[in-house]
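Assemble and predict.
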Amino acid sequence: MAQDGRTRQQRAVATRAAIIDAAAGEFDEHGYLGTSMDAVAERAGLTKGALYFHFTSKADLAGAVIARQHEVSRQYGEAAATRGTTPLEVLMWMSQGLASQMIHEVVVSAGIRLSTDTAAAGVARRNPYTDWMQVAAELVRQGIEAGEIDSAWDPQLIGRVVVPAYTGAQTVSDVLADRADLYDRLRELWTVLLAAIVTDRMRPEIPRLVALIAPLATED
Amino acid sequence: MAQDGRTRQQRAVATRAAIIDAAAGEFDEHGYLGTSMDAVAERAGLTKGALYFHFTSKADLAGAVIARQHEVSRQYGEAAATRGTTPLEVLMWMSQGLASQMIHEVVVSAGIRLSTDTAAAGVARRNPYTDWMQVAAELVRQGIEAGEIDSAWDPQLIGRVVVPAYTGAQTVSDVLADRADLYDRLRELWTVLLAAIVTDRMRPEIPRLVALIAPLATED
């Protein structure tokens, strides 16, 4: 009995994950308004009844895609953190990781698109922005402690500036070049942002730091 | 005869403008996918046939809203240019003007929303970004000449960074605060961007410059 119960629960978890993947594909291709519950059910190979058992509305589903995207991004962020040996390196690796994921992971691409989609105004989507602002602010705080970032800066202010600037770089890269120049745009953005915030001893390091924002050798 | 002809043409121009206004209202409220030609015709008080006489598709209409928004923004930009007495002041006044328009002019709000709407991928919308990058780059070039901006910077690079950063600030302000904090976000953004690019003699002027980005006394 207990094992049956667990198996059923595991199956439900797997179905839920498959639905989120299918929904991500639809949202990524057709935007929020262009996606229907019918299309998601069909893509996931489920009846509409089975879909509604897991998600009661499209807004609910979009919220789950954004939450999943944020979870995937956070995991990658933690992995990125282990690549960097200083706060600024970690910040660069996180930028690299987010860009890489945006290009390669449909759930990330879909989550980011939903997060900037006017039509998705009713969807829960504020947390990713405010969470990343906190992450960036914390790294800036560490950067100040490590003597990499000028202590005159308020870490919270830098967090509030960096996250929207990053968001805009990916939006404009999407509109102008289908994200083909995303790494270039991010390296240019960080070249300017770092020039504003680093201490004099870190200034010569800016080209080395921004060069970390590039496709990994393992990427196509 | 000639006079009749002109009258008919003037009427056509007025109808076209009324359609663009109606479309802007619909796009602003419902996004690209959520807007129908029927709703635009109804809002403009026209038959669908009359609407199609002027615009052959929704993408055509969205392109016209973006073009009109860009025209309005450029006009305001030129007016803003006359308020500033130095290149950096002009850059700040332009930022103020764009923010003010985004809040007060439906066609601008709608145009910007269409310009960042994933669902509007088929719509002509690259020009506003590339045009503003050129405008910003030209002001940076003038700022270098005037000794306000460090000559080590490539004006084109700064243009490519500033415009997406500005775009992202408005997107995030829209998502997090319905644009209520747009001026605050822009002042913070420029505090960082100016710190990166100004010459040492202009550094003490940064607070005065960013303070120009605020609601005008004539605004509500």
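Chain B has a mean pLDDT of 88.
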